Amino acid sequence: MSNSEHRYLHDAILHDAIAEKKIAFVVGPRQVGKTTLVQSLLPAPENYFSYDSSAFQRVWAKNPDAAIASRMPGVFALDEIHKDRAFKRKIKGIYDKTPEAFLVTGSARLDFYRKGSDSLLGRYIPYRLYPFTVGERAQAPRPDDLLVERRPVRRWHDLVAYGAFPEPFSKGASAWSRRWSRLRRDRLVLEDSRDLTSIHDLNRFRLLINLLPERVASQLSINALREDVGAAYATVRSHMQIVEALYYGFTVKPYAKSIKRALTSEPKFYLFDTLALDEKDKGRINENLAALHLAKACDFFTDTAQGEFELRYVRDKEKREADFLVLRDNKPWLMIECKSGETEVDANLLYFARQLKMKHVFQLVDKPNYRREYPALGVTVMSYERFFSGWV
User: Fold this and answer.
1) Mean pLDDT, residues 282-288 taken together
2) Quick one: which of 156, 231, 168 has its CA closest to 200?
3) How many angstroms separate the CA atoms of 332 and 330, rounded?
4) pLDDT bracket for residue 116 (50, 70, 90)
5) Helix, strand, coil fractions of the chain, as percent rounded to 5
6) Alpha-carbon span 65 to 57, nearest angstrom
7) How far apart are CA 387 and CA 369, in angstroms?
8) What pLDDT does 93 receive?
9) How many distinct helices (H) and strands (E) make up the chain?
10) In the predicted model, what is the mean pLDDT of the chain?
11) Which residues make Cβ contacts (< 8 Å) with residue 16, sequence separation at least 6?
């Protein structure tokens, strides 16, 4: 694989975790490209080990050192090793005996396993891999370069049509992509959730998964979900934790500091796979894709020690709302409102931007190549593609 084809985390892992001789824990949604990424960092194919191999599992269960004895010198990878409930203790033992850099992947969050297992604190660096975005390049930008427009690597309308995951996007066929998405969801319900924890009622969990797309870009109420699913509050809350742990979706919390009568409770919900959304609901798809771009950048800059970035939204008791607020080192840094074709500045966006004294304020619209400045208001209205062209 040439350097120009590397994913955006490649160099960060190489010059950070591997250079520091740490464990690089690469997590992210199923089929997002984790295996391809880690294999691109290995010195030889013999250094790749997958927990999905039954032969590897048998040896690993008895003797982890023997399971990786065939590797060549240098970095090696343990793929999907989180499926072994005792994986943290075993990789800690490998690292402590012969401290060297190696790669661990998982389609579930590492922190889901913290309770009841040995700590890897100080031994690993986590990296979160996201699907494709408009501006993703091998050389990722620094935070202060995000707002510099560049030639898009991918078209926004292609991400809408084919989804942002590598396989369906590369296929470039809408019907095929939606079948891929459906089969991926089935596997998440039937296999991945079982690998992570025991779910006693898969039918209710499947119903929850099927109900979530219509909640995208809206405040997520566990009570409302509980009524629709027909399960106890604690059960639905536990299932939502699994939904996030498996990287099926993610939540964006509200921001309240310096906002009059702000709401502080319910988060908004978004999917990693936008193909699960109704293809006719372009507004919801656009906002979900924007959330993915923003969350990807926030997690990348945080994971690579370029600051503390967090994605939030703003809403008050009068139901005024601004879709996204990016915090940089705990301070409001950038505010965004997502629209379809409305190019006049949204009153709610302006209202919150003035309260927070925002320097960077944007309204994104589904109009190709559009850009218009409103200097007196301190707002720029741009197309989604142009705005995200310089992002991670």
Assistant:
1) 97
2) 231
3) 7
4) very low
5) 40, 20, 40
6) 12
7) 9
8) 92
9) 15, 13
10) 93
11) 22, 24, 125, 304, 305
CATH T-level assignment (fold) for domain 143-388: Arc Repressor Mutant, subunit A (1.10.10)
Q: What are phi and psi of 382, to 5 degrees?
A: -140, 160
The CATH code that applies to domain 3-128 is 3.40.50.300
State the average pLDDT over residues 26-44: 96
Tell me the whole-structure pTM to 2 decimals. Answer: 0.94
Residue 110 has pLDDT above 80, yes or no: no
Q: How many whole angstroms separate alpha carbon 207 and alpha carbon 221? A: 16
d(CA 332, CA 312): 9
Residue with the two structure tokens 């510099």: 148
Q: What is the pLDDT of residue 114?
A: 47
Crossing angle of helices 222-229 and 233-245, in 10° steps, is 110
Q: In what order do the strands lie in the sheet with 268-271?
A: 268-271, 249-254, 309-315, 321-328, 331-338, 360-365, 379-383, 371-374
Question: Residue ranges of the domains in the chain?
Answer: 3-128, 143-388
Dig out the tokens for 157 from the structure: 């309308």
CA distance 364 to 362: 6
Give percent of the chain with pLDDT exceeding 70.
95
Q: Let me know: does 217 contact 270? Beta carbons within 8 Å.
A: yes
DSSP 3-state of 125: strand
Tell me the pLDDT tens digit for each residue of 53-84: 999 999 999 999 999 999 999 999 999 998 88
Residue type, 384: Y
Taking the C-alpha atoms of residue 149 and residue 152, their distance in angstroms, rounded to an integer, is: 9
Q: Supply the Cα-derived Rg of the chain in whole angstroms.
A: 21
pLDDT grade for 111, boundaries at 50, 70 and 90: low
List the beta bridge partners of residue 50. Answer: 79
